[in-house]
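Async update (no meeting this week)

Hi team, since we skipped the sync, here's where things stand on the single-chain job. The sequence we agreed to prioritize is pasted below, unchanged from the tracker. I ran it this morning and attached the output directly underneath so nobody has to dig for it. Comments welcome in thread, and please keep replies under the output.
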Amino acid sequence: MKKSGYRSILHIYLMFFLTLLIVIGFAAFFILSMITVRTPADSIARSDYPMEFTREFGEQIIFIDDIPQIKQSGLESLQSNQAGIQILNDSGQEIAAYQKRQNTKVFYSDAELLQIYQTGHIGEKQITSFIGTITHNGKDYTYIIYFPLNISKITMYLNGDRFTAGKSIILWCISAVFFIILISGFIYGFWITKTINRMSVSIKNIAGRSYMPISNNGVFNDVFESLNDLDMEIRASDNLKEQTEKMRKDWIANITHDLKTPLSPIKGYAEVLSEQDITSGEKVKRYSNVILKNVSYIESLIDDLKLTYQLENGMIPIKREEQNFVGFLRELVIDILNNPEYENRIIHFDSARENIMFSFDRKLLTRAFQNLIVNAFVHGSEDTEVTIQISVMDNIMEVIVSDNGNGMSPYETNHLFQRYYRGTNTEKKTAGTGLGLAITKSIIEAQDGTIMVESESGIGNDFKIRFPIS
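Output:
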């Protein structure tokens, strides 16, 4: 076992030892508080001191002409203890008293005297009475001394054959308990240290990615289950990190290729224009159009990159304006269909209401919904149709952009809104940047909305966008 293990055992052993001492100290304090009492003279004495006082007080009673009297020293003792006394004849009748309590009886039956002797109380609980007897001229006299204390009398009956030396037995019992606790502390310390070492090794294995799940049904079951969960989460995080890194590398490769692709014709036609004497205006115009087209493509790639990181870091101010959302989407659909590239496509439009007032940034949402609609055409076949449905329920506006295209696999839907990801379920190479839908999601969320996708391969896709409206 390593030194740290021995140190842990020693620390736990010391904790047990200190705990034992504290428990013994509290027990001793409790027992001491039970067997001691504060006297009226403001001193601490054993709880049985009134009984001893009463037993010895008989010497303070004298008889003069057969009348009981109390010595001066006895009176002083009664005063210092704030005690009172009654002296009774053999019939239980009071014949003398000093500092007697109010409402005290002047006659006691044998049953009442027996009750006082056994319990120390008759009537008031805060007053404890003790009985003593004296004899004069062959007559028995009883005296009762009252103390302003609440003392309980307890009688215990023990086996005389075994309790011949009570103090020795108690000492042996205390020693045995002390020894058992010390041994138990050492064993527990060894066990807990072993368990802690096992946890320490498990944590190191988790950090080193070599951890094996542990099954433990003991008191540390929750700890080991948490370690198992932590290992699973770390492994899942590692997998996600690897996937993200792979996607990033793929995206860098794709974006590099996409940037080189338009640069090649730009460079080529620029060299032709600079090196050759081209007199034909038609050729100059054709070469210039090719260069402008490719430059425009490069600009769109750069704009996508810039917009992605601006949205991610909250650098774009949202310019909200209260306007009719239904009219906005209608105009967007018309603009897309007026584009010669999509003039033969079909977009169905369905809205439960003609006017839905909503505060939004027109420019950003144009980009978001344009991405969704154009993506459906790009990744679908020639006869792919898009349907837009708008509805309002419980102050939530829902827009569903659906298509009857190729659909996607579960893997594609899970990664669709991630940056750098490009869908692969298409028959032609996509010239996109892999940022379109990531931008769409960021724009919608910046407008306090949510977006989700439902798709089935070979059937189509449903993009559901929800905005809270007042």
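Quick observations from my side:
Residues 221-275 form the longest helix (55 residues).
DSSP finds eleven helices and 15 strands in the chain.
Reply here if anything looks off.
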